[in-house]
Amino acid sequence: MKIVFYSRPDLSYKTSEVRKLYDAIITSGFEYFFSSGFARIVQEAFGVDVPKGLIFNDHGDFPEGADMLICYGGDGTFLDGVRILDSHRVPILGINSGRLGFLADIPEAYENKIFEDIINGLFDTEERMLLEVSGEFDEGVDYPYAFNEFSVQKSGMEMISVEVFINGEFITTYVGDGVILSTPSGSTAYSLSVGGPIIAPNSKCFVISPIAPHNLTMRPVVIPDDSTMEFRVLSRSGKAVVTMDNRDYEVKNGSSFTLNKAQKTVFLVKFENNSFYRTLREKMIWGVDTRKFTK
């Protein structure tokens, strides 16, 4: 099995954890490749130089014939991995070196067990949708897809207005700090922080969530995933910011964007007893009573 490992070069890491992961990789017997960022971490952590033939830089030289991409970091690193895969239909797994980690949901402590399960084929893949975006980007966009969300946000202190259309029908104008269109996968990310609902990842829908709306009757709306959405930006400052996952682009007043469910999808590696609902319970600390009672 050929495994590709990716990490950001500026990752804040513990040398002991990187060493443990590296040793697990070497002893697993996998054919492996490292991103340049992960190779740099290994070199800086304990002085091991990875051969150049085992290093790749981006999606342009992603190793052919790979069976799995493993991302070491947090959810931002995982989102980088989705972009790096691009058109490669390779399942992706996240090992969490950060704090929360809904996407990079495998704790570092389980690395050896995870590799054993991969060797024995004890895992499934779960298909997730992508959002495809087209529109008036000032300088273009090299990867027009989002795994978590697309958003339009103010640039500066002044509020902006965003006109939203669904299947050609005008819905409303969101006035405030902006608006988010989230996939089910992204419902536990930015959308959740502004009051959006948690959506099971296999649901066939999108969520439109306002960011700090000026009109307090504005609430998140769930819409079918076969909808075509259009966002039009109205900004008195003459500019706004559009985001696609962890990438942002400055756009002009009057810019318009069309959003659809993408034809391509992403496959996540899932192990037994590592369900979405278990992740919710653990990450959100549900069912834990922290109250103190006295007699």
List the main descriptive attributes of the protein structure presented here.
295 residues, six-stranded parallel beta sheet, six-stranded antiparallel beta sheet, globular, alpha/beta
Describe this structure in words.
- This protein has 295 residues and is of the alpha/beta class.
- The longest helix is centred in the first third of the chain and has 14 residues.
- The protein is globular, with a radius of gyration of 21 Å.
- Helix 1 packs across helix 2.
- Helices cover 19% and strands 37% of the residues.
Looking at the structure, what is the overall shape? globular
The Cα radius of gyration reads 21 Å
Beta-strand proportion: 35-45%
- Total strand segments: 18
Poorly predicted segments? none
The class by helix and strand makeup works out as: alpha/beta
**Separate helix tally:** 6
What sequence of helices (H) and strands (E) makes up the elements? Answer: EHEHEEHEEHEEEEEEHEEEEEEH
How is the largest sheet built, in terms of strand order?
A: 3-2-1-4-5-6
End-to-end CA span: 59 Å
Characterize the largest beta sheet: strand count, sense, and whether it forms a barrel: 6 strands, parallel
Instruction: Give the helix level as a range of percent.
Output: 10-25%
Average residue pLDDT: 88
